[in-house]
Write a structure and sequence with these properties.
Number of domains: 2
Helix content: 40-55%
CATH topology of the largest domain: Spore Coat Polysaccharide Biosynthesis Protein SpsA, Chain A
Mean pLDDT: 95
Largest sheet: 6 strands, mixed
CATH class of the largest domain: Alpha Beta
Oligomer: single chain
Shape: globular
Number of helices: 12
Structural class: alpha+beta
Length: about 250
């Protein structure tokens, strides 16, 4: 991903570069809203970013395992710079060394870029709305869920190693799964941890369980969610140790 971004930036002729994922739908006036902050000609503005929507109408079209994986996103919107539909000042990206393709392969390059751009300028949130379809794939399976969780967790481990994730809030948000497991080793908080893990195993995919309650596969979802805790711990530890994403 990082290498692809860098190639596009290198080939671009404009000072403003817009990234767009192939599985994204743009809402009305999205491009106009995205680039509007740059009309001020303020050199401190180095990037602008979108707000992504996850309509339930799109989620309802997913197969069972996609419903499971994306259930926590339904009808929620998120502001953030993640490459799906963002605008960058080319000179600023080049100034910070472009996207880090050496340490990040399939995830984490966006968080690393945010960290670098914050040091030299301002990133502006816009009302540029998009819908992320997540490649509606009928062949999406539980293996894909495990693979994606591994990619994200390994990237987070790398970001921790490289100082991209460093504040208490960032660490808690990124590694709450790992904290749930590690806290099982602490006698005085073990019972609390067990209760939280039980709640997590049921609540994390609750919308999918509610929607697909007639599907016999919902029975294994709590066990899958617990398994993902261990997947996260393994891959984040791997990323932290090696300092480079390999998954």
């Amino acid at each position: 991903m990082a290498a692809t971004y860098n190639e596009g930036i290198r080939l671009s002729k404009s000072e403003l570069v817009v990234t767009l994922h192939q599985d994204v739908i743009l809402m009305r006036n999205s491009l106009e809203r995205l680039v509007k902050p740059f009309e001020k000609n303020d050199p401190k503005i180095v990037a602008s970013y979108h707000v992504v929507l996850h309509p339930i109408a799109v989620w309802n079209k997913y197969n069972f395992w996609q419903k499971v994986f994306f259930s926590r996103l339904v009808n929620r919107k998120f502001y953030g710079l993640d490459g799906k539909f963002d605008c960058f000042r080319k000179s600023a990206v080049e100034r910070v060394g472009c996207f880090d393709s050496q340490h990040f392969r399939t995830a984490g390059e966006d968080g690393d870029m945010i960290s670098k751009l914050k040091k030299i300028g301002i990133m502006v949130a816009t009302e540029s709305k998009i819908i992320h379809l997540h490649q509606n794939d009928n062949n999406f399976s539980v293996k894909d869920i495990i693979k994606k969780q591994g990619q994200y967790s390994e990237a987070q481990g790398v970001m921790l190693r490289r100082g991209v994730i460093k504040s208490p809030k960032q660490i808690t948000s990124a590694f709450f799964r790992e904290f749930l497991l590690v806290s099982l080793l602490i006698p005085y908080v073990r019972i609390i941890s067990i209760c939280l893990i039980v709640l997590y195993s049921l609540g994390y995919t609750w919308r999918a369980i509610k929607k697909e309650w007639k599907n016999p596969r919902v029975v294994i979802l709590p066990f899958l969610n617990v398994t993902l805790l261990f997947i996260s711990l393994y891959f984040s530890t791997k990323g932290l140790i090696y300092g480079k994403q390999k998954a």
